[in-house]
TrEMBL record:
Organism encoding this protein: Gimesia chilikensis
Database matches in PANTHER family: CAAX AMINO TERMINAL PROTEASE FAMILY PROTEIN, SLR1288 PROTEIN
One protein family per Pfam: Rce1-like
Keywords, sorted A to Z: Hydrolase, Membrane, Protease, Transmembrane, Transmembrane helix
Protein name as catalogued: CAAX amino terminal protease self-immunity
Polar residues biased stretches: 1-11
């Protein structure tokens, strides 16, 4: 799907240039030569990072010793706060447009107090429109920022190659187990948070930042397709670009697969503001990043993100129209049965094993796995003699996955709470959108 540019010429290798410079300088002794080489390499890599380029890779398709790409931990934290800034700019744009609208319709008051009330009523009366402008601005800024930071070959670095249909089906059936587990984690975290907030009343202000409460309010007065666009499509693009495509790329390259995924997912959780929501989405972020790594396709985490949020808003919409149908998915005042949680966890564990066994690899003619010199999901250079390979899992592993999924479905049917009366309200849903 992507035609990446050729890799930089070997003549620009910073190690070769720095060694040549040190060797031609007679004033350096042996120890001074090593120090000069290290300094030159550092400066060359800093220059390449500033230009948005990675260190050169070998042309023979073998693994190189390139310096890890950015961002590092400090820059990643800056990107995380940049997400807050982008959303703030989106809200400001909506407010400016709202003021212009009020002025144009001559519905604005000169009294400051009345003016503030009118603006508040405008936001409260159009929550989906406000969220849509906010998310659209966030995606727009994210696309530009990530494109500039990645520099050359941004699509190659993100890796937009398609993934196997069987993998897509597997990710599809993971949505419900993921949603129920994250919902139960949210319930536990929210109960604990409520106990703390009662002791420190100022912390109750965080309850105003509950994303799902806002989604439930919007579901009653807006179409499903508009909800999916704003709550599912925009976040799947913007948040995946920032966290999996940018922050995770640098942290995994520097810290390794597990620490990189964990740190990135914690940052991903933090931007969701409410402490209970933060805790609930961290495991989801870890799963999406794992999917990205094993499929070597940026489309895979985007699909998981989209399906989870689309499922959550669909259930929220259903709860407003047919409460008795949504009630069977769980009342947040009641915990999910432990056997449902356990069966979901076992099934997801089997899925992770299967995804690892069938993970995508780039193999050289020598039979070695190609990497750019650090853990990465990016594609090899276009002129590298590298072949993409995806092994098949053992048939028993497929059978185990089917068996565990059936156990999950049976446990849901057997242990889901039955509502004697239709008392479920939109706020009874415990599916998490992120």
């Amino acid at each position: 799907m992507v035609a990446p540019e050729n890799s930089p010429s070997e003549d620009t290798n910073p190690e070769r240039l720095s060694a040549h410079t040190a060797a031609d300088s007679p004033i350096f002794e042996s120890e001074d030569q090593e120090s000069a080489q290290e300094l030159d390499q550092f400066l060359d890599q800093a220059l390449q990072t500033a230009q948005g380029e990675d260190a050169p890779r070998p042309h023979d398709g073998s693994s190189g010793n390139a310096a890890p790409p950015g961002p590092g931990l400090i820059e990643s934290i800056c990107w995380m706060f940049g997400v807050f800034g982008a959303h703030f700019l989106g809200i400001m744009l909506f407010l400016v447009c709202g003021v212009i609208y009020l002025i144009a319709t001559s519905n604005i008051s000169q009294d400051p107090d009345t003016f503030r009330k009118e603006i508040a009523q405008l936001v409260e009366g159009h929550p989906l429109e406000a969220a849509g402008v906010e998310q659209a601005v966030f995606v727009f800024i994210g696309l530009i920022a990530v494109g500039l930071r990645l520099g050359k070959r941004p699509l190659q670095k993100l890796n937009l190659q398609p993934f196997a249909f069987s993998t897509g089906f597997l990710l599809f059936i993971c949505v419900l187990p993921l949603a129920l587990m994250s919902g139960e984690l949210y319930r536990i975290a929210f109960d604990a948070w409520s106990l703390v907030a009662k002791q420190i009343p100022i912390l109750e202000r965080f309850n105003e930042m509950q994303t799902m409460e806002i989604v439930k309010d919007m579901a009653a007065n807006n179409s499903l397709w508009s909800l999916i666009l704003v709550i599912a499509v925009f976040p799947a693009i913007g948040e995946e670009l920032i966290f999996r495509g940018m922050i995770g790329r640098g942290l995994i390259a520097r810290w390794g697969l597990v620490p990189g995924i964990v740190i990135t997912s914690i940052m991903f959780g933090i931007v969701h503001a409410h402490p209970a929501h933060v805790i609930a989405v961290i495991p989801l972020g870890m799963f999406m990043h794992y999917v990205y790594y094993v499929t070597r396709s940026f489309w895979a985490p985007m699909l998981v993100h989209f399906m989870n949020n689309a499922f959550a808003v669909s259930m929220a919409k259903m709860a407003t129209a047919i409460p008795e149908s949504a009630a069977s998915l769980g009342d947040e005042t009641q915990p999910v049965h432990p056997l449902i949680v356990a069966s979901a966890a076992l099934f997801l564990a089997a899925v992770c094993v299967q995804l690892w066994k069938t993970r995508v690899k780039y193999m050289t003619p020598q039979g070695e796995e190609w990497t750019p010199g650090y853990p990465s999901t990016e594609q090899p250079p276009a002129n590298s003699p590298v072949t993409m390979m995806r092994e098949k899992a053992h048939p028993l592993l497929y059978a185990a996955g089917v068996f565990l999924f059936l156990i999950f479905l049976v446990s849901m049917a057997a242990f889901s709470p039955q509502q004697e009366a239709v008392t479920a309200q939109p706020e009874a849903m415990q599916l998490i959108a992120f």
